[in-house]
Each structure stands twice: as structure tokens, then as C-alpha cells.
Amino acid sequence: MTGSYFRGDSEPILSPEDEQMFDKVTYTYYEQLDGYQYLKSFGIDYKFYQGRYTDALDEALNTNKKTIIHIPSVNSSESTKDKYDEVDRIFDAIGEVNNRNEQTGIYTIKDKHTGKLLKVADLVNEEGREKVGEYLRQLNSPDDLDIIVALNMAKEGFDWPWAEQALTIGYRHSLTEIVQIIGRVTRDSSNKLHAQFTNMIEQPNAKDDDVEYAVNQILKAITASLLMEQVLAPEIHLRRRKNKDDKPVNDTDILIRGLKEPSTKRVQNIIENDLPDLKAAILQDPSVKQGIVSNISAEVMNKELIPKVVMTRYPDLSDDEIDQVSQYALADTIIRHAEVETTKDSKGNTNQFLRMADKFINVDQLDINLIESINPFQRAYAIISQNIDSETLRLIERSIDAKKYDFTNEELVQLYNNAKRFVETHGRRPNKSSNNQEEVRMAYALAKLADIRARREQENE
Question: Per-residue pLDDT for 3 more than 60?
Fold first, then answer.
């Protein structure tokens, strides 16, 4: 049995053949919250910063919420490499240290905004950690603690039911780790109606030496959050709409005109049991990530990149089966991310609309062709483009384009000469979206040359 939404086993427990003999049971956060007495909602947010994260902490930290702050690993780019200094700066961001209880190791800090005395546990410093741990094991009420600062602790197995906010700095390399962090604040407790996971992410600058790495970290954090939003969403079941008058059998049914019926038990099993893991594989695929950053067309994403991941994950499927699984993965992803709005017409009839990307669609008029015209990760690109300046985005796109083809030096010279003649003839640069393959190659060759030139200039500075 595994208790995670996303498998993180370094060694398979069962062979794929044996694993297919078992039924997967997915218990979503939505179902979990629906069964709680007090906690009814959970949110995911991003806070972008430049410079030291400790200088931006004041904007992300709500000291009125019981909070766990997870500082970055000392090996990460977000770390200042001095974890003890980071704790001191976090304390300064909270307020003024009043005292430290010698028996419990708990700090009392006067909130600089409200003047309230806050009880803060430091799980980063080794000195006195045993006393702090003992105090945490004896907590009896929300008033016993306000904030925990941790590095590699306060995750799996840690229980502080009154925690409302997880504030995490930097990207976490494991989806399982993110699930565990979120699990710390999704315990039911009388002091909270809402819980929050906030990820502080370093905002790259075009002048940085390793802007690609920084953007990749942002993308990893955002895609991980998108996956978590998937498991937070209500359960849905996609069905083919065969006739105009078809009605959903259950409240969770979504009818889609043109959706392919699963043609085999293998496809049916993947759709019913493996979609969460498949969507995780899609979002973690390098080509998909690059496609998100470069804002590639829906056609390329939905007809090339997603089916390629499906084919890699399930090599035994036929082309038609790959198409069926891809359709369900795509539709499930888009619909779960859609915002639902309800309206009433002049006769008092209720209509539900889904906002999918930039489209408003009546739920009763969902069509697979319409769904396939939408980039499922448009929102991820929107988040990136809103928080990264245009110069940096152009730099990233150029770098991605430079890796599209593996040109030899001789090919680059020839394509450069061809591109010059192309400009003289057509009065414009080659377009990478052209239907002419040679024009496409010229466009990517120019991107490769621009990337080489920029890197040389950077090395000579």
C-alpha cells in the first residue's frame, strides 16, 4: 500500500504486470476536506522575490496564522548557505526577540506589526533541539505555539493539527515531499476554516548568469502546484455524449461530444486508475516543460508532446489506444483547472459555464475538438509571464530554440548563408512556425547562433 498521490519509490515494489492485478484507490483532498468538521478549504499560492528571500518574507508571512516555515536546503540556489543566519533574519522579519525559555527552548517574539507575543520554535539549530522537540510533542492547544521554523523537519510524521499555513522557500524536488508538507496544514482543527500552502520562488533576471536554471526552478514549482490542484479538485468522470439529449447519470459525470470510447480493458484501466500518475509524468516531461515556457501552440502540446509521454509510459499501447488515453488525460486536466460559473436565463433556467483558458463554454456543449484547441498549461505560462520580464522570456525562448536541433558547425554556416538570402528575398527573418521545413531549420539555426554569441559575450565580461 502507498499513501501518496504520486509514487516516489526508488525501487519498484511490484513489476508492472503484477501491479496491474491490483485496483488503485484515490482518496482526494477534496473528499478529505468534505468529511471534515472545521477545515473546509485549501489554497495554493506563489510569492516571487528577488535577492534574499528573508528580505521578502514580510510580504508572504501572515503571523495571524499558525505557520510552518520551511527554509531551503543549504545546497539550493535559494539558500544563503548560512542556515543559522537565515533563522536570525526570519526572526527579525517577525519582530523583536523577547526571550527564550530555557526549559522548552521556545522563543517569544514581539510581532512588529501587531505587538502580539508569538511563540516560535526553531528546529534548524541543533543546540536545544531536543528540548524543543519535547515541547512540541506535548502541545495541547492552539495557544501553545504560533510559528515553526524548520529545514528538514516538520514534514512526514510530524503532527501539529493547528497549523494553518505552510510557507516553503524554493522548489521541492519531490512531489511526495510537497504532499507531506501540505499534509501538515490539512489536519482538521477548530481554529481554522482554511489552510494555505505558499511557495516563495526566486524571480530570475535576464542579467543573471544562470537564468535558465532559475526559470526551470519556477516551472518545477508551478507544475508541482498544478498537480496538487488536480488532486484538490472534485472527482469527475468523463463520458462520451452520444446524443444531444443525453444526461449525466451521476453528479460527477461530465459529458463530452466526440470523446473516444475506451476500446480495450487496458485503456479503461489506465483511465480509471492511472490518470493522476500519468498527468504527473506529463507535467514532469522536459519537452512539456520547455513547451510551457515557450508557450507553444495547443496543437503541438496536445497532438505531439502529450501523446509522446503516453507512448513512453505505456509502450504496449497501439496508436489508437494512445490517442484515447491522451484525450482523457487532456480533457481531465483542462476541466479540473476550469472555473465554474452559474447563470440563470430569463426563464429561470440554470446554466453552468466553464472558463477554460480564454474561452467560456456551456457545460452542455463540451466538445472534444474544442478541448483539443486549448493549451492545458496556459495558466502556468500566464503565471510565468506575469512574473518574469520580457527580456528574460526572450532569452529563455532563444535558449530553448537553440536546443531544438543538433546542428554541426558546417550546417550552421550553410543555414546562416541560406537565411541571409532568405531575408534578402522575402524581407523578413525565417519563421520557426512555417510549414516549410527548410525555413524552420534556418530559424532554429539563427537561434542557435544567437545563443552561442550571447554565451561567448557573457564569458568575456
Answer: no
Helices (H) and strands (E) in the chain, counts: 18, 13
By residue count, the chain amounts to 461
Distance CA 178, CA 197 (A): 9
8-state DSSP, 135? H
Contact 327, 310 (CB under 8 A): no
270 beta partners: none
C-alpha cell at 273: 486508475
DSSP-assigned letters across all residues of 276-313: HHHHHHHHT-HHHHHHHHTT--HHHIIIIIHHHHHHHH
Stated pTM of the model: 0.69
The full set of domains in the chain, from first to last, is 28-202 (3.40.50.300), 232-379 (no CATH), 404-460 (no CATH)
Cα 369 to Cα 253, 257, 298, 439, distances in angstroms:
19, 9, 11, 29
pLDDT band for position 428 (50/70/90)? very high
pLDDT computed for residue 2 by the predictor: 44
pLDDT interval class at 113 (50, 70, 90): very high
Strand, helix or coil for residue 264: coil
Percent of the chain with pLDDT over 70: 75
> Which is more confidently placed, 230 or 190?
190
Per-residue confidence band for 403, with pLDDT thresholds at 50, 70 and 90: low
Task: Report which secondary-structure segment, H or E, holds 202.
Answer: strand 194-202
Within 10 angstroms of residue 185's Cβ, the number of other Cβ atoms is: 26
Between CA 130 and CA 288 the distance in angstroms is 45
| Sign of the torsion formed by the C-alpha atoms of 423, 425, 430 and 431 | positive
Residue 429 cell numbers, joined: 527573418
Burial of 16 (0-12, 13-18, 19+ CB in 10 A): exposed
Helix, strand, coil tally for the chain in percent (to 5)? 45, 15, 40
Cα dihedral 146/149/150/155 (nearest 10) = 30
